[in-house]
Amino acid sequence: MSTETLPKLDEQTIATVKATVPVLAEHGEQITTRFYQMMFEAHPELKNVFNMTHQKEGKQPRALANAVYAAAQYIDDLSAIMPAVEKIAHKHRSMNIVPEQYPIVGKYLLLAIKDVLGDAATDDIINAWEKAYGVIAEAFIQVEADMYKETAEETGGWVGYRDFEVIDKVKESEVITSFYLKPVDGGALPSYKPGQYLTIQAKMPNEEFDQLRQYSLSDAPGKGYYRISVKREEGTDQLPEGKVSNFLHKHVNEGDVIPVSAPAGDFFLDTDSKKPLVLISGGVGLTPMMSMLQTIVKEEMDREVHFIHAARNGSVHALKDDMNIANETYPNVQTYIVYDTPTEEDMKEMIHAKEGYVDLPWLQSIVPQDSDFYFCGPEGFMKAIYRSLKEWNVPMEQINYEFFGPQGDLEK
Asked: Is 259 annotated as a binding residue?
């Protein structure tokens, strides 16, 4: 989308907003935490849109603070933040966010700024931010309108939620289960890009509001079904167990129906590239990588592929058979397994494997530097991979990654 179609801000408004950048850097997370508190108190129905575990972990307020900070920093050149807008817009489209919800967000964001900053939030600052928020919201609304239109016009495409039947449920490991989904209406299925995700609408007993969650598609498109592979998130002393993942594992079975939105996401395989492909996953981060691998083999693409998967041990390694079959069947595919605490049985079975962790010297010994790298997994794992690739001087245009949940920062 071109920013030329957006309303223009006057110089005084731009100057006032940019002057608040140091304040946002210092108080941004406090402001966004307060924003969510105030908005949910007034509009509890919006809790069905947000992952409340991410709220408790502080990830959502932190991600929003970073987005607000970036918007203030580049308010005079919104083209600089359009890639971030488009990334978030994919998520919004998948959750069926509508233009009418933006004024609600704006109202409570301004109230939170005033609440946290007190007298320092002068009328001039609040008025400037109100104008700036209007322009930023319009950018999201325009991008999302294009995405809704494109989704609706696809063969088999739909907007909103469509009922899907669970036609198969397969336990892949001690913690990951796959759900095979087909539309109840028997209509066509739109294709998707390997790496994209579905949003499911979980309607759980004794819950006041529905819960929305995104799960990566874990198979190649064009097979007549969608497959998601879901990790059951266990609770800790600080956080409750994953509400939706446990609901799916324990209560959703073959024959049950789940409302689903159309595939979305801006993390996907560049199928036009001819460079060697390196897929690196940790834990359940293998799901989008498996979609990429299965697409390569299904389409018989003559492209060198190295798939590296890291897990605690074999008991939690899902889709292992899929990796082994690809490794044994296709000469252009090489898979590697890395277990940090392998069992005795694992040691007998492991081929092209490593005990411990994915480190740079080992990575350099098995894959070419001039590759396209895609990786996904826990944040600490992703930071380690990112640092290794940067240390190896891999160009940024060859580095691709996906966060499960709010966008984080791999530089920190």
From this structure: no
- Tokens found for residue 184: 């109840």
Cα of 390 vs its chain's centroid, Å: 22
The confidence score (pLDDT) of residue 6 equals: 74
Residue 102: active-site member: yes
Nearest Cα neighbor of 284 from 312, 318, 326 is 318
Q: CA-CA distance, 314 to 338, in Å (whole number)? A: 10
Structure tokens at 254: 């073959």
- C-beta of residue 128 within 8 angstroms of C-beta of residue 16: yes
**How far is it, in rounded angstroms, from Cα 45 to Cα 303?**
48
Tell if the pTM clears 0.85, that is, is over it.
yes
CB atoms within 10 A of CB 55: 17
Residue 55 has pLDDT above 60, yes or no: no
Distance of alpha carbon 409 from alpha carbon 183, whole angstroms: 37
Say whether 368 counts as a known binding-site residue: no
- Active-site residue (options: 29, 133, 144, 401): 144
The catalytic position among 36, 69, 102, 133 is 102
144 is catalytic: yes
Does 92 appear as a known binding residue? yes
d(CA 232, CA 316): 11
Cβ neighbours, 10 Å, residue 125: 19
The answer to whether 339 and 352 are in contact (CB under 8 A) is no
Catalogue all structural domains in the chain, each as residue range(s) with its CATH number. 3-153 (1.10.490.10), 162-264 (2.40.30.10), 277-402 (3.40.50.80)
- For residue 88, the SS3 value is helix
Q: What does the alpha-carbon distance between residue 378 and residue 376 come to, in Å, rounded to a whole number?
A: 7
Q: Kindly give, in sequence order, each residue whose CB lies less than 8 Å from that of residue 38, ignoring residues fewer than 6 positions away.
A: 108, 111, 112, 115
Task: Name which residue leads in pLDDT, 237 or 374.
Answer: 374
Cα 6 to Cα 137: distance, rounded to the nearest angstrom: 10
Measured CA distances, 154 to 45, 80, 108, 193 (Å): 31, 29, 36, 13
Q: Does residue 405 have a known ligand-binding role? A: yes
Half-sphere exposure of 279 (CA within 13 A, CB side): 30
Helix (H) or strand (E) holding 114: helix 102-117
Is 79 marked as binding a ligand? no
Lowest-confidence region among 95-109, 231-245, 313-327, 348-362: 231-245
End-to-end Cα separation, the chain, in angstroms: 30
Determine the Cα–Cα distance for residues 210 and 221; give it in Å rounded to an integer. Answer: 28
The whole-number pLDDT of residue 242 equals 80
